[in-house]
Specification:
Layout lengths: L4 E7 L2 H14 L5 E5 L6 H11 L14 E5 L5 E6 L6 H6 L2 H5 L5 E5 L13 E7 L5 E6 L6
Parallel strand pairs: 2-5, 2-6, 4-5
Antiparallel strand pairs: 1-7, 3-4, 6-7
Helix pairs in contact: 1-2
Bound molecules: adenosine-5'-triphosphate (ATP) and magnesium ion.
Adenosine-5'-triphosphate (ATP) binds next to helix 1 and helix 2.
């Protein structure tokens, strides 16, 4: 399979990462699924917060690590589903909490931290994003068309 790089940017601050995610959210239609790859502390939750703001959600957005999924209602209907699959071991565990229904909700947007847990069941239209550490304040953010294995 070919991986096409759709966009690659350097973010030099938390605010820039939020802004990037904010703009992206404003361009993505309902039903979009974003797989957010990156190490611990890369900035996945920062990105998710910016994404929520781009959907006009004003509630605080924090790491859902202990809840797996947080649902934020969007002002114009539908939801922003923020998932953190760090504690999910395999596809079976994800299906057990009903991940399929979230990912296939045509009214809502999903952003998934640690998507590699469920790479085999991500929808074909999933947008794949990787956040890599450059230094303390800088990150490389890459959008590709398919899920990477890392
Ligand atoms: N350019 C940047 N973009 C995003 N975050 C940055 C940037 N520079 C520094 N940071 C810092 O990196 C940290 C990112 O934390 P965040 O919780 O978003 O990571 P995460 O990828 O969600 O980690 P985890 O895997 O533990 O959920 C924050 O403390 C943030 O201030
Ligand atoms: Mg996080």
């Amino acid at each position: 399979m070919n991986t096409t790089i759709i966009k690659e940017i350097i973010s030099n601050s938390e605010a820039e990462t939020e802004q990037f995610a904010y703009s992206l959210a404003q361009t993505l239609p309902r039903g979009s699924v974003v797989a957010l790859n990156g190490d611990l502390g890369a900035g996945k939750t920062v990105f998710s917060r910016g994404f929520a703001r781009g959907l006009n959600i004003t509630e605080p957005v924090s790491s859902p690590t202990y809840t797996i999924i947080q649902e934020y209602p969007c002002p114009d209907g539908g939801y922003f589903f923020h998932m953190d699959l760090y504690r999910i071991n395999d596809v079976r565990a994800a299906l057990d909490f009903g991940i399929d229904e979230y990912l296939n909700d045509p009214e809502s947007w999903s952003v998934i931290e640690w998507p590699n847990r469920i790479s085999t069941i991500l929808p074909p239209h999933t947008i794949n994003i990787k956040i890599e550490n450059i230094d303390d304040d800088s990150r490389k953010i890459t959008i590709t068309n398919i899920q990477s294995s890392s």
